[in-house]
């Protein structure tokens, strides 16, 4: 298989939604966040409508990459990064375009058509807060010690294309940018993804394992935090 890394545009929303949520759906903990009447296809459809608005929101600090299968044209990987406020001028090539007022209004209307007062349809927000708030607390503690960092926010590969270096391609491209300006990088990784980051020079910081047994899942929800110093 042959792949290429590219920047992301709002027109990529359907392909990005499918690659990203097909990847997330492999995690049973993540599946539990959704109402039982929301199957994967419904979640992908809603996400494709939300994404154009989300891609342009906070665009000063968000950067995006996709990987395309050159033989099919399919988007098979997506990653999102957050730059610190002190470095909003970096890596503009991975920033989404500034939409016209008409485009912006259209994106906002599409977002509102599949959300309830800004909330994602079918998502269990109480459960999201229960498990998300402790994760935020850990990360804030790390950043307090480390100082400003470039953050790997999302890293996803469509399950049909895992094991072909898709995530590595995106990560290496992003790290070129931070190495060029001497910025630390932080990531919260799953156990399966930890090796990807360690191979690129990330150092383990800590782990949080959360009990999901009351939701019928015996396996704890585990996240690892890693930091990487810039390479010269």
Spatial shape: globular
Q: Helices and strands: which structural class? A: alpha+beta
Please tell me the total number of domains.
Answer: 1
Biggest sheet: strands side by side, in what order?
1-2-3-6-7-9-8
Q: CATH topology, anyone?
A: Aminopeptidase
Bin the strand percentage.
15-25%
Q: Enumerate how many helices there are, as a single number.
A: 7
What is the level-2 CATH architecture name? Answer: 3-Layer(aba) Sandwich
Helix content: 25-40%
* CATH class descriptor name: Alpha Beta
Number of strands: 9
The largest sheet is: 7 strands, mixed
The averaged pLDDT comes out at 96
Order of helices and strands: EHHHEEHEEHEHEHEE
CATH superfamily: Gcn5-related N-acetyltransferase (GNAT)
Estimated radius of gyration: 18 Å
Low-confidence stretches: none
Organism: Lachnellula subtilissima
Pfam families: Acetyltransf_1 (PF00583)
Domain N-acetyltransferase: 81-228
GO molecular function, one term: acyltransferase activity, transferring groups other than amino-acyl groups
């Amino acid at each position: 298989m042959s792949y290429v890394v590219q920047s992301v545009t709002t027109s990529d929303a359907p392909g990005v939604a499918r690659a990203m949520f097909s990847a997330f759906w492999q995690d049973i903990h993540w599946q539990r966040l959704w109402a039982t009447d929301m199957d994967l296809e419904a979640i992908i459809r809603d996400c494709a409508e939300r994404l154009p608005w989300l891609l342009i929101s906070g665009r000063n600090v968000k950067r995006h990459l996709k990987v395309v299968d050159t033989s099919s044209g399919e988007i098979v990987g997506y990653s999102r990064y957050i730059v610190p406020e002190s470095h909003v001028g970096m890596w503009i090539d991975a920033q989404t375009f500034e939409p016209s007022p008409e485009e912006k209004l259209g994106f906002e209307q599409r977002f509102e058509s599949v959300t309830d007062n800004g909330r994602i349809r079918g998502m269990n927000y109480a459960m999201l807060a229960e498990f998300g708030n402790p994760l935020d607390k850990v990360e804030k503690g790390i950043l307090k010690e480390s100082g400003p960092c470039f953050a790997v926010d999302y890293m996803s590969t469509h399950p049909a294309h895992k094991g072909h270096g898709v995530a590595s391609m995106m990560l290496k491209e992003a790290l070129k940018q931070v190495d060029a300006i001497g910025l630390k990088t932080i990531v919260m990784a799953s156990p399966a993804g930890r090796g990807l980051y360690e191979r690129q020079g990330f150092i383990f910081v800590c782990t949080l394992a959360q009990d999901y047994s009351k939701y019928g899942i015996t396996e704890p929800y585990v996240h690892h935090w890693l930091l990487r110093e810039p390479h010269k």
